[in-house]
Recover the amino acids of this structure.
């Protein structure tokens, strides 16, 4: 199955992946206009320290601790993609406790958020991958 | 192959999913003493709060039992016979098994307070039925006393606060959530709960009840309309009477086998190794219950699986203030306490033993994984991870594996 992989050697620390991620969920046409003065809360997040940077998003683990530990059954893994049922999530943060990558985060909507490989928002290659100008984030079979 | 599972909660459901990873055909019988579809027990407080519904509380989708070819039987198991490989139910029927899973969870512990039998109404807070009965007894005129300032008592307090005149929580311990918080973090959470309207009486011991009045050791009298007992839980294992080895809970190994061949156990009724402290403990937590169940199911069906990384861990929130804790609180400490956010890490012998986070809990799982995997702290940038949990603290090589497709 195709997944998002990150190669920190090519990451410019430009944060465009974060903007493309936030924009993918907005159902708007113009990114610059849609994100102007908006404090984004993306599902992919850059870590940056001492000149090193890289993007972190859900790994869609084969043995996802977030799914196994979910107290409501809101997190499920279907065809290799870990998604969240927002109707069932009660925001308990057990998934944040369990995720070894720190890839699940609080949202502003009373449920947690995570990368769902854009399957609910756009078709094809995830937005962060399309938006990365330097090929540091790729969507491929490994 | 015939699998029998006693219990229809997280551990039982995990077992079904584990079995079906290996054996698509074997017969699975689940025995439950509750008249419900599998539901998430920790959600009962969210139900009272109106944050979920009985339908949304279902732990699995509506076709779970049919998809997995399971038969759900309503009944209470009174005996397990290892010799004849059968369980007996209270209606006199017997069900035979090839492999048995015990996932009977825990029951509320009710201390034998003098005069408790004359208190009305009184409730425990463990099951959907408990929540429904409690809810029916509440109205805006009622003063509720909750005995026990642990996770169950406080989630109950949050769930009912808006429905009643007052909620007073009483506990023997000098601080709230004493099993998961230290003094400073407990203080922070307590003031938050007080600001929402919950009253506390800590270091308080009840001498006896006189109808609906609690008489404390210092002879003060606290009247109430409704009593909730949330003092603690005990494994639900009395019916086993020697069929498997028991200490405080059912003793299981890393493959979730009990001392008796073909009998497995998972979840709150078991006692297992806490890798963060090296001690055997009852860790009554839903994620562990599911993972033990899944492990048991795979092994019962002839697969190979271990679950040997159990640690105590909790994620819980009250009125928007989140708490995440894990591991054991031994060793040296790293502390941050500012702007309502609290962080304390406990470490020794080149390992992270435990942590407490209140408020900002982002990326807590990075800390959990350090405990679970017993990561040597000299192999990461520990000073950085203390300040800022993230993959940055690992070496470039480890990051290549984690972000570049390692399994």
């Amino acid at each position: 199955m195709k997944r998002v992989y990150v190669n920190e050697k090519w990451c410019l620390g430009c944060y465009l992946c974060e903007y493309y991620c936030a924009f993918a969920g907005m159902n708007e046409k113009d990114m610059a206009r849609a994100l102007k003065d908006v404090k984004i809360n993306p599902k992919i997040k850059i870590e940056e320290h001492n000149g090193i940077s890289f993007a972190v998003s859900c790994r869609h683990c084969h043995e996802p601790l977030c799914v196994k530990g979910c107290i409501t059954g809101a997190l499920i893994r279907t065809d290799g993609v870990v998604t969240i049922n927002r109707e069932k999530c009660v925001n308990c943060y057990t998934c944040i406790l369990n995720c070894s990558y720190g890839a699940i985060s609080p949202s502003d909507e009373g449920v947690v958020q995570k990368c769902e490989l854009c399957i609910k928002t756009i078709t094809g290659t995830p937005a962060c991958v399309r938006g990365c100008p330097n090929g540091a984030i790729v969507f491929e079979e490994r | 192959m015939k699998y029998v599972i006693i219990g229809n909660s997280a551990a039982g459901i995990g077992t079904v999913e584990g079995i079906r990873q290996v054996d698509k055909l074997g017969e699975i019988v689940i025995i439950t003493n509750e008249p419900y579809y599998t539901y998430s027990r920790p959600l009962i407080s969210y139900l009272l709060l109106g944050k979920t519904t009985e339908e949304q509380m279902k732990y699995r989708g509506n076709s779970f039992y049919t998809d997995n070819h399971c038969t759900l039987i309503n009944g209470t198991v009174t005996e397990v016979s290892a010799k004849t490989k059968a369980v007996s139910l209270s209606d006199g029927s017997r069900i035979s098994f090839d492999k048995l899973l015990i996932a009977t969870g825990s029951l509320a512990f009710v201390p034998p307070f003098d005069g408790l039998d004359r208190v009305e109404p009184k409730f425990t807070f463990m099951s959907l039925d408990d929540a429904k009965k409690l809810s029916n007894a509440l109205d805006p005129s009622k003063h509720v006393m909750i005995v026990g300032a642990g996770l169950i008592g406080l989630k109950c307090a949050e769930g009912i606060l808006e429905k009643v005149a007052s909620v007073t929580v009483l506990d023997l311990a000098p601080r709230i959530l004493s099993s998961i918080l230290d003094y400073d973090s407990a203080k922070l959470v307590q003031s938050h709960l007080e600001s929402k309207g919950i009253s506390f009486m800590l270091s308080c011991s009840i001498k006896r009840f006189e109808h609906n009045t609690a008489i404390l050791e210092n002879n003060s009298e606290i009247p109430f309309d409704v009593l909730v007992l949330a003092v603690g839980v005990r494994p639900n294992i009395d019916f086993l009477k020697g069929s498997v080895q028991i200490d405080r809970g059912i003793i299981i190994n890393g493959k979730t086998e009990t001392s008796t061949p073909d009998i497995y156990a998972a979840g709150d009724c078991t006692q297992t190794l806490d890798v963060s402290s090296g001690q055997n403990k009852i860790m009554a937590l839903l994620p562990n219950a599911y993972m033990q169940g899944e492990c048991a199911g795979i092994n019962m069906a002839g697969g190979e699986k271990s679950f040997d990384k159990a640690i105590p861990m909790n994620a819980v929130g009250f009125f928007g203030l989140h708490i995440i804790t894990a591991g054991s609180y031994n060793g040296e400490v790293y502390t941050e306490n500012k702007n309502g956010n609290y962080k304390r890490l406990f470490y020794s012998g080149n390992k992270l033993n435990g942590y407490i986070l209140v408020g900002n809990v982002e990326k807590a799982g990075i800390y959990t994984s350090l405990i679970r995997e017993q990561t040597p702290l000299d192999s990461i940038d520990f000073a950085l991870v203390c300040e800022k949990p993230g993959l940055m603290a690992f070496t470039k090589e480890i990051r290549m594996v984690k972000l570049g497709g390692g399994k």
Summary: The first helix of chain B runs from residue 10 to 22. The mean pLDDT of chain B is 97. Chain B has three domains: 2-107+234-300, 116-231, 320-403. Residues 84 and 96 of chain B are 8 Å apart (CA to CA).
